[in-house]
Every structure is written in C-alpha cells, then in structure tokens.
C-alpha cells in the first residue's frame, strides 16, 4: 500500500511516496531523509549520475543517501533543496 507524505524544504514542496508495507508509519529519521533527497533529485529532473556531477558529490554518496544506507546531514539536504529551487526559478525567469 502506497501513501503520500508532504514535506516542505527550503521552499520546495515535496510529495514523498512511501510503501506502508515496509514502513508501518510515516517515515522519520534516516528513512525520511532518504525519501526527501530522492524527491529533491526527481524535482530537478536529473538522474542520479547527473545530479551527483551537478552537485560535485560522489555518485556513491548520493546513492547511499537515497537508499538510506548513510545519513545525510540535515543542513546538506537544505542546501541541496535550496540550490534546486534556485535553479528552477532561474530557468523559469522568476
């Protein structure tokens, strides 16, 4: 069963889908961060490889964060979300 969880980070409204069968309740901690970084990347429209290159972060690090194998620092998530938001605004000309 899939559920949605809405999260706002640095002006980005992220709709995070998670599998209730795997996660019995709303995601928190490492799992929430994993869902959030994936949602930010998807909002950018990039695949994992391009996203890692664009940010200058090793692909393996991005992959580990998205799979919940490593905990991403909260401030890094906010900085990445801010950068994605600013790039989107710049492309739209706002």
| Total of helices | 4
Question: What average pLDDT do the residues reach?
Answer: 81
Find the structural class using helix and strand composition.
alpha+beta
Going by CATH, the architecture would be Orthogonal Bundle
N-to-C SSE string, H for helix and E for strand: EEHHHH
Number of strands: 2
Low-confidence stretches: none
The CATH homologous superfamily name equals lambda repressor-like DNA-binding domains
Using the alpha-carbon principal axes, give the shape. globular
CATH class: Mainly Alpha
Fraction of residues in β-strands? 15-25%
N→C terminal distance = 38 Å
Reported for the largest beta sheet, the result is:
2 strands, antiparallel
Helix content: 40-55%
How many domains, as an integer? 1
Radius of gyration: 13 Å
Give the CATH topology.
434 Repressor (Amino-terminal Domain)
Strand order of the largest sheet: 1-2
Characterization of the model:
This protein has 94 residues and is α+β, with helices and mostly antiparallel strands. The chain has helices at 29-44, 48-55, 59-66, 74-92, and strands spanning 2-9, 12-19. The protein has a two-stranded antiparallel sheet. A hairpin with a 2-residue loop joins strand 1 (2-9) and strand 2. Helix 2 packs across helix 3.
Short description:
The protein has 4 helices and 2 strands. By secondary structure, the protein is of the alpha+beta class.
Key structural traits:
434 Repressor (Amino-terminal Domain); globular; two-stranded antiparallel ribbon; 94 residues; alpha+beta
């Amino acid at each position: 069963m899939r559920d949605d969880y809405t999260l706002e980070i640095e002006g980005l409204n992220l709709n995070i889908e998670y599998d209730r069968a795997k996660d019995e309740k709303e995601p928190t901690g490492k799992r929430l961060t994993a869902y959030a970084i994936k949602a930010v990347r998807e909002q950018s429209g990039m695949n994992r490889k391009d996203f890692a290159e664009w940010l200058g972060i090793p692909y393996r690090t991005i992959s580990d964060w998205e799979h919940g194998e490593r905990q991403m620092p909260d401030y890094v998530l906010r900085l990445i979300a801010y950068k994605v938001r600013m790039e989107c605004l710049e492309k739209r000309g706002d």
